[in-house]
Amino acid sequence: MSERYYITTAIHYPNGKPHIGHAYEMIAADAIARFQRQAGRDVRFQTGTDEHGLKIAQTARARDLTPRQLADEMSAYFSDMANDLNISYDRFIRTVDADHYAASQAIWEAMEAKGDLYLDRYEGWYSVRDEAFYEEKELTEGEGGVKLSPQGTPVEWTAEETWFFRLSKYQQPLLDLYAANPDFIRPERSRNEVVKFVEGGLVDLSVSRTSFDWGVPVPNSPGHVMYVWVDALTNYLTGTGYPDKGSALARYWPANLHLIGKDITRFHAVYWPAFLMSAEIPLPKQVFAHGFILNRGEKMSKSTGNVADPMELTRLYGVDALRYFLLREVAFGNDGSFSDEAIVTRANADLANSFGNLAQRTLSFIAKNLEGALPETGRGDPADAELLATIDEAGREFRSAFESLALNQALEAWMRAVFACNQYIDVQAPWALRKTDPDRMHAVLGTLVRAIRDLAILVLPVIPESAGKILDQLGQDARDHAALDDKGWYDAAVTSGFRLALPTGVFPRLVLAEEAPA
Ligand code: ME8
């Protein structure tokens, strides 16, 4: 049985249309899931929408819809985007799904059985925008004396009877968890933030609401719905069949990776492990908090009107150009900025002009001059072995960087290998050898085909459609790491008599939208 790998994104609030930050998170998780599948792991990948809470209830009321009607309409934008971005999820979970109600109520009952839930009166500050409670000491004052959360959103004084979770009891167990598992929270910045927060002391958490009813009902407590984060976090367990231990999906728990944005680290690295400890459920192995995508260096917000629509960007530049740009340009874990110019420049430099050009000129030359037959081994030269060794080394670097989630570093290594191929072509000049030294030309072209195939397999998780097309052109169906490690494939392909058809370019040269003809 192969090793299991369960990866999740945050589930997104569908109270507006998806923005590029949501797209970024799905794309990063998708690349990791695809990479893990290539590595031979039994992968489960879940994404979805987080549909309860006061925010959705309020928006629905404003539009004269039921919360469920609004949730159905808005969630579809997110699942459509996931499909359009080529996100290879196994389940798109919606927190309105029936099995999710069952899972949320089951974890609630387990926490209650442990004695960790009690009824009391909550009085304190709540941010509807963040769906979060804050302590007085965390607040700042905004314009006109409005109190603001650490995320800069307005908070309101809330007072109601609610269930409390004994979070305070888990302060030491959480600190012990962080100490024993230095990689539980990554990157370092997020880890330090969380440790500092927990060291500062934890107060019990209000986990139910009575002022609205758009949520999962608290078992045996009429009038109470669960605080949206209790149900939201439980989505990860729902996806593994919880509480049914006999479920075929139960084997995926505990999750290997919860990929989230840095603003929700506290929920995933403090509340979630505390709930799980209370319910006596094993803890996920890692929470990784990625950075924020900024629009030309600016935070996106509805009020400034600079919220970028990822679907518009893919319509203009293509899905793979956007995927490549986001993963190559942003140091994974840090914030990163995008602009149309930056996407076009990066996609043209790396994909169209470097990798695309390498593949296109090599494969079309073979199609035209060798009737598509893969070149025979020919007369070798140390430069050939050197290039292939460079590709192998880049492959090792790529795989180890990807494994440790240094996605941009993996792509840097990949790009260095592409450059090495282009340098090799310039020096070996195979087109000139056609008349003078065909035997040597065969060796050069054969070396290039091997390199192109390996480079395409490596980059497949990042740009699945275009790298897949190159592998189709080469007649290569095996696309995992085992295929990469198989050095006999080329001779087998030559022997099989495979012939390349005249390839069409896979990476169009992009033109900036304003410059494009209407
Ligand atoms: O927080 N750049 O949902 P959400 C990068 N429902 N990532 C961004 C971003 C940006 N500009 N803006 C948001 C929620 N994100 C909860 C999660 S999980 C059990 C519940 C990320 O729609 C954000 O950090 O506000 C989060 O990981 C995800 O998008 C969904 O944010």
Automatic annotation (TrEMBL):
Primary enzyme class: ligase
Motif 'KMSKS' region: where in chain: 299-303
Domain Methionyl-tRNA synthetase anticodon-binding residue range list: 374-509
One MF term in the entry's GO annotations: methionine-tRNA ligase activity
Catalytic activity line of the entry: tRNA(Met) + L-methionine + ATP = L-methionyl-tRNA(Met) + AMP + diphosphate
Enzyme Commission number: 6.1.1.10
Keyword Nucleotide-binding: yes
CDD domains, per the entry: Anticodon_Ia_Met, MetRS_core
Alphabetical list of InterPro entries matching this protein: aa-tRNA-synth_I_CS (IPR001412), Anticodon_Met (IPR041872), Met-tRNA_synth (IPR014758), Met-tRNA_synth_2 (IPR023457), Methionyl/Leucyl_tRNA_Synth (IPR015413), MetRS_core (IPR033911), Rossmann-like_a/b/a_fold (IPR014729), tRNAsynth_Ia_anticodon-bd (IPR009080)
Annotated Methionyl/Leucyl tRNA synthetase domain residues: 5-363
Subcellular location: Cytoplasm
Presence of keyword Ligase: yes
Keywords: Aminoacyl-tRNA synthetase, ATP-binding, Cytoplasm, Ligase, Nucleotide-binding, Protein biosynthesis
Function: Is required not only for elongation of protein synthesis but also for the initiation of all mRNA translation through initiator tRNA(fMet) aminoacylation.
UniProt similarity note: Belongs to the class-I aminoacyl-tRNA synthetase family. MetG type 2B subfamily.
Assembly description: Monomer.
Name by which UniProt lists this protein: Methionine--tRNA ligase
Gene: metG
